[in-house]
Design goal:
Elements: H1 3-25, E1 30-33, H2 34-41, E2 50-54, H3 59-68, E3 72-77, E4 81-86, E5 89-94, H4 105-109, E6 112-116, E7 119-123, H5 126-136, H6 143-154, H7 159-166, H8 170-182, H9 189-201, H10 211-226, E8 236-240, E9 243-250, H11 253-266, E10 271-278
Parallel strand pairs: 2-5, 9-10
Antiparallel strand pairs: 1-2, 3-4, 4-5, 6-7, 8-9
């Protein structure tokens, strides 16, 4: 890092601490997001501003608290963004992120402390940062994609929480995780598979897919969940073009064989592909 970047970085840290102190004095819950949070959770990179996430209902109070602390402020866009300035350093006060993501209590409870200027500051957890970055990615801002990949690479993820937060944006997050896999990162298979399935469930059916296929899929899923020989409600079932494919993980080879047997009993003329793994 060059001398100028070091000076800029130190100034941004100073302004960040000043802004956080102002919001705390105003009793405004907040969390660090954006480039500074990405640098703390994933990869280090230069950023030109500070991003703080607040609740939508607190947006005006947040701006007032910053004004009282000496910041210049503006109501930039009342649908999602206000700004505050300390000299030439800009603080984005974000209350609705892209994709309608909002700072809620669940997100607040999963914040992580990061050290800024020798002090702990609440930052969004890596799971929420990953989702936000995946959703925000676009051709003119590819840094979001690579920020998210670096958070995945860091490996410190609460996968059940990530799945819960990612479901409304399943196709974006699934695409990111599949890319990470293709790039050699080691990820747990089942969460990725669940997100891919959630993403595909949102895809309108192709005209070639018949109502009979949908009914058969539902019947097979119910059988796998309720048949005492199997009792596996979390398996993936796909019926397409006279073929039934089942995927997932089970504990024993006997359970895998039972799955194939149950499917063949119900699938009629459809070919059965049993791709279930024994773990």
């Amino acid at each position: 890092m060059g001398d100028q970047h070091r000076i800029t970085h130190a100034l941004m840290n100073e302004v960040l601490l000043r802004a956080v102190d102002a919001l705390q004095a105003g009793n405004v819950p907040n969390a660090l997001m954006g480039g500074l949070a990405s640098a703390a959770l994933g990869r280090s990179r230069h950023t030109h501003d500070i991003d703080l996430f607040v609740r939508e209902l607190d947006a005006d109070r947040a701006l007032g608290a910053l004004e009282r602390a000496g910041f210049r402020t503006e109501r930039t866009d009342p649908t999602w963004l206000y700004k505050a300035f300390w000299s030439d350093t800009m603080v984005d006060v974000i209350f609705v992120s892209k994709g309608g993501v909002r700072f809620d209590e669940d997100m607040r409870e999963h914040c992580r402390p990061v050290e800024i200027g020798g002090r702990p500051i609440d930052a969004l957890g890596p799971e929420d940062m990953l989702v936000i970055k995946a959703v925000a990615n676009a051709e003119h801002v590819p840094r979001h994609w690579h920020d998210a990949l670096s958070i995945v690479a860091a490996g410190d993820l609460d996968w059940p929480y990530l799945l819960r937060r990612a479901r409304p944006h399943a196709s974006r997050v699934a695409s990111l995780l599949l890319y990470a896999l293709s790039d050699g990162q080691r990820l747990p298979a089942e969460p990725v598979r669940e997100l891919v399935e959630a993403a595909m469930a949102d895809v309108p059916p192709h005209p070639a897919e018949t109502e009979a296929e949908h009914h058969l899929t539902a019947r097979l899923r119910e059988a796998l969940a309720t048949d005492p020989r199997v009792n596996e409600p979390h398996l993936s079932v796909l019926v397409c073009r006279q073929e039934v494919t089942v995927r997932g993980q089970v504990a024993t080879p006997a359970r895998r064989r039972a799955i194939g047997l149950v499917l063949r009993e119900l699938a009629g003329d459809h070919r059965v592909r049993n791709e279930v793994e024994v773990t």
